[in-house]
């Protein structure tokens, strides 16, 4: 078996092999675009059998990830990972992932992210679930707010209704302001929007956008939605301000022709359920994992993010997939971290995948200690880790790739 880099000439073979691995056929959306339109073929791999037949694929996107403290760093989004069913359990996937991580290292990237098709696959490659999302379904007849507000916009604001096709760059501009302030959010490069690569509203699929404007007329939020057979499905609500966010939710819940409203990607910490007069009105689908994080360079990653408490921890980090193990002293003073090799006894012993879960602040270290994933040494090690890793804003990721 050979694993080789791809070029633009391999695009058709790459796509055909990927879809065959998932038992599907390539589709050309009627509106144009599609996720394949965003592939970076100079960052893709093709596994080829000895007889020359392609048997596996893997690729990476070039993203930016917002870390706690509104710090923006490059992150490789691993995607399009598949192996033909005729060649599974022969080491093809492991070989492609090993090559992929080596390539990311060579590019100087210290973080990788992905969305996992199956939860049990990627932990062994060092990825840990780092953000969750919710799906809310609210019957409209139970959608009254505990504190009524006249109109649908925030104070001194307004809402404009646009079709996706007539929005131009507006949603991209609003999203870019949002993702720069939201930990866990990924960038949406310009070519994603221009090629319609992704899910609505990035794709060209017909959608309405309720665009919120502040008192001066500046667009500061949007909700992308479609009404079908009485169900109003909101693809995403994007806003940096809670008041604007709530105004857009009120707009959706106030649509006269809807019998129910479904919010597909709702931040788990958002207070909408508490804002409703009927606290049981929102039916919550169990939190699914969304963004998975993999640290490729532990010291660089830990010193890159922002911190909100002073302290120090010794972390013993095991990376079995890459055959590496390191012990690091993490010291935080006034929001800045230093991470250096250490020979002191560890406070926490953990797998690199668990460190990926902790990295954005989506789960507390003590939770993983209680779950048996992380080993705490000493009676106060877990509580000290909780205090150090706490964040000022829960991570959330809307972007699908």
From TrEMBL:
Keywords, comma-separated and alphabetical: Acyltransferase, Transferase
Active site: 122 (proton donor), 401 (proton acceptor)
GO process terms (BP): aminoglycoside antibiotic catabolic process
Positions of the N-acetyltransferase domain: 1-148
Pfam family, one: Acetyltransf_9
NCBIfam families for the chain: PRK01346.1-4
SUPFAM superfamilies the UniProt entry points to: Acyl-CoA N-acyltransferases (Nat), SCP-like
Family annotation (PROSITE patterns): GNAT
Binding site for acetyl-CoA: 81-83, 89-94, 117-118
Family: Belongs to the acetyltransferase Eis family.
InterPro entries cross-referenced by the UniProt entry: Acetyltransf_17, Acetyltransferase_Eis, Acyl_CoA_acyltransferase, Eis_dom, GNAT_dom, NAcTrfase_Eis, SCP2_sterol-bd_dom_sf
Protein's name in the database: Predicted acetyltransferase
Organism: Amycolatopsis australiensis
Gene Ontology molecular function terms on file: aminoglycoside N-acetyltransferase activity
Domain of life: Bacteria
UniProt cross-references to Gene3D superfamilies, sorted A to Z: 3.40.630.30, SCP2 sterol-binding domain
Subunit structure: Homohexamer; trimer of dimers.
């Amino acid at each position: 078996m050979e694993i080789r880099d791809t070029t633009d000439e391999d695009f058709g073979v790459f796509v055909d092999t990927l879809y065959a691995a998932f038992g599907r056929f390539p589709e050309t959306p009627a509106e144009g675009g599609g996720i394949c339109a965003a592939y970076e073929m100079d960052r893709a791999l093709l596994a080829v059998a000895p007889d020359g037949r392609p048997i596996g694929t893997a690729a990476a996107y070039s993203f930016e990830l917002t870390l706690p403290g509104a710090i923006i760093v490059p992150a490789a989004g691993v995607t399009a990972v598949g192996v033909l069913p005729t060649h599974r359990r022969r080491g093809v996937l492991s070989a492609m992932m090993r090559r992929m991580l080596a390539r990311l290292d060579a590019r100087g990237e210290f973080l990788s992210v992905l969305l996992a098709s199956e939860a049990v696959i990627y932990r062994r490659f060092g990825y840990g679930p780092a953000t969750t999302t919710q799906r809310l379904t609210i019957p409209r007849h139970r959608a009254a707010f505990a504190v009524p507000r006249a109109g649908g916009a925030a104070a001194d604001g307004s809402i404009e209704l646009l079709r996706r096709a007539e929005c131009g760059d507006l949603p991209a501009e609003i999203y870019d302001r949002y993702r720069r302030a939201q930990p866990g959010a990924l960038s949406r490069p310009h070519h994603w929007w221009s090629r319609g690569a992704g899910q609505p509203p990035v794709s060209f699929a017909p959608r309405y956008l309720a665009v919120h404007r502040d008192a001066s007329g500046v667009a500061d939020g949007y909700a992308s939605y479609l009404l079908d057979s009485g169900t109003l499905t909101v693809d995403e609500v994007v806003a940096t301000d809670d008041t604007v966010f709530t105004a857009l939710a009120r707009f959706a819940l106030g649509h006269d022709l809807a019998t129910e409203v479904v919010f597909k990607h709702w931040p788990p910490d958002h207070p909408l359920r508490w804002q409703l007069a009927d606290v049981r009105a929102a039916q919550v689908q169990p939190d699914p994992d969304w963004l998975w994080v993999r640290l490729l360079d532990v010291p660089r990653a830990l010193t890159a993010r922002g911190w909100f408490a002073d302290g120090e921890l010794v972390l013993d980090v095991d990376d079995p997939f890459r055959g590496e193990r390191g012990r690091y002293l993490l010291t935080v003073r006034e929001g800045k971290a230093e991470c250096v090799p250490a020979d002191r006894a560890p406070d926490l012993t953990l797998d690199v995948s668990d460190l990926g879960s902790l990295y954005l602040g989506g789960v507390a270290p003590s939770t993983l200690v209680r779950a048996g994933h992380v080993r705490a040494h000493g009676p106060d090690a877990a509580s000290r880790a909780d205090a150090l890793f706490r964040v000022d804003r829960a991570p959330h990721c809307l972007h699908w790739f």
